[in-house]
Each structure stands twice: as C-alpha cells, then as structure tokens.
Amino acid sequence: MPELPEVETIARNLRKGANSAPSLIGETIQNARLFWARTLAEPDEAAFLERLPGQRVEAISRRAKFLVLTLSQWALVIHLRMSGDLRMLHSDALPDFHDRMALDFCSGWRLSFNDPRKFGRIWLVPDTKQLFASLGPEPDDPVLTPQTFHAMLQQKKRQIKPLLLDQHFIAGLGNIYTDEALFTAGIHPLRTSESLDLREAEKLLAAIRLTLRNGIEANGASFDWVYRGGSFQNHFQVYQKTNSPCPCCALPIQKTMVGQRGTHFCPNCQPL
C-alpha cells in the first residue's frame, strides 16, 4: 500500500508536473468518467459526474495517506488503498482495463485513477473537515513534541507496532516505514507503548520523522506491481530483509507477525 512518502510524491508530481505532464494546478475539468461505481464513496454517481465539469484545480495536498485536490467549489479526495495509482495521460489515450475513474481536462490531459484490486476510494465533498476528523496528527506536526508524543504513548497501553499503524493515533505510517523507524529507534515492535520512557519516545519520534523524510527524498519505495518510480527500497534496513545480516550487528533479521502484519526487526538491536 502506498504510504505517506509515496502519496506525498504523487501529490508533488501532480503539483509540479512530471514525466512531460504539466502541473494540474490551474487545470479545468472538462468531463469526468466513472468506470466502477463502487470506487465512489461520496456522493452518488450522478451528482459526482454533474458537479466536476467546469471545476478548476486550485491546490493539491496530502493528509495522512489521502490525496486532496482542492477544486473551485469542492474537494476531491482519493485514497489509493492497496493498489491504487494516479496517472497523467493524454486525453486521447485508451482507458486501461483497471482504470476506475478519469478526469479529462480542457488542456487535453487526463488524470486516471488505476486500481487493479478495487480497494481505492474517492470522495467529492464540500470540505474535508468531517472526513479527516478522526485522523491523528501528522508525524511532522510541530505540535507533536516529544513530551506530547510520550503522553500519547502512555495513554494507549498497546503494542507499539499496531499503535503506529493506527491512523487515529498518528497519520500516514504503514508497514514499511514503521518497521524501518522502529529499527532506527532500537525499539522492539512488541514493546507496549506505556513501557517507553521519555527518552525512548523522543528517539522514536525522531526516527519516524527521519525515516519519512528519507522516503520522500527517495520518491517513496517502489514495490510489487503498484507504485513505481521510487528508490527507497534500496535503503531498507530491515523491511523484507528476513535472514539478511543486520546493518548494525550482522545478526540475521527476523520476521514475525504483529497485529496480523508481517514485521521485520533485529532481535539484538531491538531487544524486547
């Protein structure tokens, strides 16, 4: 699943333009097409197709793993889920078999939402306040101080790996970046959140921010047959490194299941 760095990279490419495609900022939607109705979470199909033509793209941003296109009168929100991807194409290109939605712009370009597994969702809402109301803080939010983060950990009393994956606790982390951040911080994924002292909480928060920053600088991680173009997979320390030597102590990286998620760690550098 694309995580925060991958979604941030997509947002940045749509804002600035990439691979010969122009920036979407300022583009006007000529028409919209929906190829699989269940991709649409809100509103109904008729309202969606009626409201989009004539809308101008004013801004493109990200909240957690959601991509947000701020339009003249609406907010178009896209969650890529397991296999979603956004592609800029010329309007005369034939739709792909796995395209679920397409926006054709007056300039002759098209934004296609491609999603083989059909888990992705799209919302067209007046504003995003209600949709994002339950999300936790962004990892780089200045309000999230080490003291605040430590207090949050103390309140939850949960295993640290599933807690970091919980978007209501902190927004944007997924399996890859959580494993990498826990390794950088030297914290075992089965540690309970209330067992971390202030020093460990500060170290973990710094590791999360560093890992995400490195991921964004590498344009995210390319994986499976979904997200392409990133290089962070070349810098993995533990993720998908089962039985490979730990980059710090050379002992084999282990894999276990935590909260029904495959989890990679070094038992020596991340003692339980």
Please give a structural write-up.
The structure is a single chain. Helix 1 packs parallel to helix 6, helix 3 crosses helix 6 (198-217) and helix 5 packs across helix 6. The longest helix has 20 residues, at 198-217. The protein has 6 helices and 11 strands. The strands form 3 sheets. The protein has a 5-stranded mixed beta sheet, covered by helices on one side. Strands 1-7-8-6 form a 4-stranded antiparallel beta sheet. The protein has a two-stranded antiparallel sheet with strand order 10-11. It has 272 residues and is of the alpha+beta class. A hairpin with a 2-residue loop joins strand 10 (254-258) and strand 11. The protein starts with a helix and ends in a 7-residue tail after the last strand. It folds into 2 domains: 4-125, MutM-like, N-terminal (N-terminal domain of MutM-like DNA repair proteins), CATH 3.20.190.10; 146-265, Helicase, Ruva Protein, domain 3 (Orthogonal Bundle). Helix content is 25%, strand content 22%.
